[in-house]
């Protein structure tokens, strides 16, 4: 005899209760999120941070990272003009080889900034002609700067001060007048002197000219080949320090590789001690697991600071910080993988009369190898980025060079260069690890 299953009747009150419960959740969740965001707004004092922000300065730094300036300066103390890239003494033009937009004549100068913008310097007076606005006159005096503006309100890009006149109508044109000097800045896109220094005999050569020079038998330096001379001029560029940057990148990669491999080599044996199906001693398992918690519970940056105090600055401290942190993380992951293996494979190997080491080798390792390889390669990718941050604290590598270029506001193109190289290295590490993963796990 079949028994009928009785389903509870759906009443109007049941439906209404469900609707009200869901309506409360729908209303309360957005209110809770809004309350949390409101709390964080006041707790972090976001209003004060926004008030202190300098978006105009951020735009200038962003422009400086992809452009460079040629600076025309008249120094009243020395009584001379100087035309230089980024104002550098080592990148100063000879007066006989000035840019075509600069015309010097004794104590006067005419600078054509393009699109109708021009600056005329006569003695201690600078006249800045600006299309659609007029001419701004700034005269240096013993007490500061006397400024004369066209009629009407002064625009935001004119900063008038008794001690300094600063005019920047566009991002790529600028005039500064103080009581000691007049400066005109003209910006151009690109990175200045990237391939070779300004005074190098290779400066301004095209790639075809460099290729022909490398194959030529007429040596630039009698003691070395032209190819090596080109490479050496590039690597020893004092402005961009390509050689030092590449060495720092190599240190960063080695820091990540050494730290990750050390963590994997120590984490795997310790994982057997932490796995329930391999270690019967509760005390030993508990102690090993707490060791993993201790190692990974302290952040990598904290380990780096500890080792810097213990061993001093250098890549070794970064590698040790990575090794300590990842030993805890990889050990925990490996132990969980060991606890999830199929014991039938281990028993099958045992039935052949294999020793315990052989059972681990042929019954356990093949099962956890995909997890082992995947996790180690993933941590290697991640540690390449982490090594940059650790290096910034003093462990060396590319991170230290990155911090040095960010200390001043005039080296942001070098900062961009280092950031781009770091991203390229991370991409290459990702592609390499993907290739190794396919070769080792999939056999492709």
UniProtKB/TrEMBL annotation:
SUPFAM superfamilies assigned to the protein according to its UniProt record, in alphabetical order: MetI-like
UniProt keyword annotations, A-Z: Membrane, Transmembrane, Transmembrane helix, Transport
GO MF entry, a single one: ABC-type phosphonate transporter activity
Gene3D superfamilies in alphabetical order: MetI-like (1.10.3720.10)
CDD domains: TM_PBP2
Compartments it resides in: Cell membrane
InterPro entries the UniProt entry points to: MetI-like, MetI-like_sf, PhnE/PtxC
Membrane-spanning residues: 25-44, 253-279, 300-324, 387-403, 415-436
Family: Belongs to the binding-protein-dependent transport system permease family.
PANTHER family (alphabetical): PHOSPHONATES TRANSPORT SYSTEM PERMEASE PROTEIN
ABC transmembrane type-1 domain mapped to chain residues: 249-433
One Pfam assignment: BPD_transp_1
Membrane topology: Multi-pass membrane protein
Protein name per its UniProtKB record: Phosphonate ABC transporter, permease protein PhnE
């Amino acid at each position: 005899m079949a028994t009928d299953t009785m389903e509870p009747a759906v009443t109007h009150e049941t439906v209404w209760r469900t609707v009200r419960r869901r309506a409360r959740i729908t209303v309360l969740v957005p209110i809770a999120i809004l309350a949390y965001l409101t709390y964080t707004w006041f707790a972090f004092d976001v209003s004060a941070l926004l008030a202190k922000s300098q978006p105009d300065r951020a735009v200038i730094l962003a422009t400086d990272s992809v452009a460079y300036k040629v600076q025309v300066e008249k120094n009243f103390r020395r009584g001379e003009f100087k035309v230089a890239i980024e104002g550098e003494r080592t990148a100063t033009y000879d007066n006989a080889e000035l840019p075509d937009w600069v015309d010097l004549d004794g104590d006067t100068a005419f600078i054509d900034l393009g699109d109708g913008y021009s600056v005329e310097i006569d003695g201690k007076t600078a006249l800045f002609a600006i299309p659609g606005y007029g001419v701004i006159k700034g005269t240096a005096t013993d007490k500061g700067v006397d400024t004369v503006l066209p009629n009407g309100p002064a625009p935001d890009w004119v900063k008038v001060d008794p001690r300094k006149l600063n005019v920047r109508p566009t991002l790529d044109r600028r005039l500064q007048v103080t009581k000691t000097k007049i400066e005109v800045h003209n910006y151009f896109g690109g990175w200045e002197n990237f391939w070779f220094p300004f005074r190098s005999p290779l400066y301004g050569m095209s790639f075809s000219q460099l290729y022909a020079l490398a194959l030529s038998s007429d040596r630039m330096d009698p003691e070395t080949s032209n190819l090596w001379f080109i490479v050496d001029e590039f690597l020893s560029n004092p402005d961009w320090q390509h050689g030092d940057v590449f060495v720092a990148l190599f240190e960063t990669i080695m820091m990540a590789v050494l730290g990750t491999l050390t963590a994997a080599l120590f984490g795997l044996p310790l994982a057997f001690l932490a796995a329930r199906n391999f270690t019967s001693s509760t005390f030993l398992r508990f102690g090993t697991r707490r060791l993993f918690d201790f190692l990974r519970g302290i952040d990598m940056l904290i380990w780096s600071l500890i080792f810097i105090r213990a061993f001093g600055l250098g890549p070794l401290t970064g590698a040790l910080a990575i090794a300590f942190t990842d030993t805890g993380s990889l050990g925990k992951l490996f132990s969980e993988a060991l606890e999830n293996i199929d014991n039938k494979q281990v028993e099958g190997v045992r039935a052949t009369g294999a020793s315990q080491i052989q059972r681990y080798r042929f019954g356990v390792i093949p099962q956890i190898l995909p997890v082992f390889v995947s996790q180690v390669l993933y941590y290697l990718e991640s540690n390449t980025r982490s090594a940059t941050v650790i290096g910034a604290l003093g462990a060396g590598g590319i991170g230290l060079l990155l911090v040095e270029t960010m200390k001043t506001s005039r080296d942001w193109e070098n900062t961009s260069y280092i950031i781009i190289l770091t991203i390229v290295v991370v991409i290459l590490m990702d592609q390499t690890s993907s290739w190794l993963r396919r070769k080792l796990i999939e056999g492709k």
